[in-house]
Amino acid sequence: MKYSKIIGACVLISTFCSTTAMANNGIKVQPLQSTVSEETFQTLLVAKAMEKLGYDVLPIKSVDYNVAYTSIANGDSTFMAVNWEPLHKEKYEKAGGDKVFYRKNHYVTGAAQGYLIDKKTADKYHITNLGQLKDPKIAKLFDANGNGKADLTGCAPGWGCETRIEQHLDAFGLRDTIEHNQGNYSAIIADTISRYKNGQSILYYTWTPYWVSGILVPGKDVVWLQVPNKGLPGKPLANTALSNGSNYGFALGKMNILANKKFAQAHPDAAKLFSIMKLDVNDVNAQNTLMRAGQNSEKDIERHTNGWIKAHQKIFDSWIEQAKAAK
Fold first, then answer.
1. Which of 78, 81, 101 is nearest to 28 (CA)?
2. Domain residues of the chain, as ranges?
3. Is 113-224 the same fold as 2-110+253-326?
4. I want to staple 84 with a disulfide (CB 3.0 to 4.6 A). Which of 88, 180, 236, 258 is the partner?
5. CB 216 within 8 A of CB 121
6. Rounded distance between C-alpha atoms, residue 310 and residue 294, angstroms
7. Among the listed residues 227, 219, 191, the one whose alpha carbon sits nearest the alpha carbon of residue 113
């Protein structure tokens, strides 16, 4: 009798899980990411989890961040896994904010960003903070094109970080001594790394998780510049001091899974999944470094993602079961 009850319970659970997956058959899900290919890993991980729930997940589309927010807000796309907070606060609110978006808890935390220079120059000239580059003599050390200004490898237009950099240039009176070089970040940072390898002084902006810090290692090859909390009259900069006393001028970033609110409300299993998935920033860094080493094809990233799932199978399976239970 007890044996029969156990068998019945197992059948019931199995039927429940199968029914949950079947209920999502034919429901199309459109993931988005920016044009930064290093965002594919964390996006694909969410897509694979959605597939486990039975959704028909379409190939990931790479679009400009502004397009992504508008598309998800309008329901033309379903989710993205790279809602940067607080960096994308303005984009989030401009597209409709909490009225149109669903986000709960953080997917990736501890993402640092800021300015770095090569350690050799930092040690020789005792450079520790961004404000010192107001001195033309110091700025000229980082001049790559002979115009007398420091060449800052900066942030691509539309990413959000460019706004913060422009604020810093104004707040510290650096317009006459620093040139903010923008464009294709991958190309510009590759040139910066080449100059470093040739023994030249370098100044650049970057963020983690990203492969750059695996090539130019903070503390070994380069050092972070401190950015005192200084603003313009009537326009104070936000407090970005870290718990260890450092201040890089940018708050520690978080990446959230951002979804269309109506979709999340209609599909509680997906909403639950979006709220419980967690990815270590070091895992993203490690995968991005593999891409930098040449493993950057779609098949490579697919293999990396499958490898992560296999290595964290219990965690991945628990996400799926919790999401199914919410259905």
1. 78
2. 2-110+253-326, 113-224
3. yes
4. 88
5. no
6. 22
7. 227
Domain 113-224 has CATH 2.40.340.10: no
For residue 198, give the nearest of 210, 190, 207 by alpha carbon. Answer: 190
C-alpha–C-alpha distance, residues 260 and 6, integer Å: 40
CATH of 2-110+253-326, one of 3.90.180.10, 3.40.190.10, 3.30.450.40, 3.30.1330.10: 3.40.190.10
How far does CA 297 lie from the centroid of its chain?
Answer: 19
Distance, in Å, from the CA atom of 228 to the CA atom of 248, rounded to the nearest integer, reads: 8
**pLDDT tens by residue, the chain, 327 residues:** 444 444 444 444 444 455 556 678 789 999 999 999 999 999 999 999 999 999 999 999 999 999 999 999 999 999 999 999 988 999 999 999 999 999 999 999 989 999 999 999 999 999 999 999 999 999 999 999 999 999 999 999 989 899 999 999 998 999 999 999 999 999 999 999 999 999 999 999 999 989 999 899 999 999 999 998 765 556 666 778 887 888 999 988 899 999 999 999 999 999 999 999 999 999 999 999 999 899 999 999 999 999 999 999 999 999 999 999 998
Q: What is the dihedral sign for C-alpha 88, 281, 214, 37?
A: negative
Q: Cα(260)–Cα(214) distance, rounded to whole angstroms?
A: 34
Judge whether 52 and 310 are in contact, CB under 8 Å: no
**Would the pTM count as exceeding 0.70?**
yes
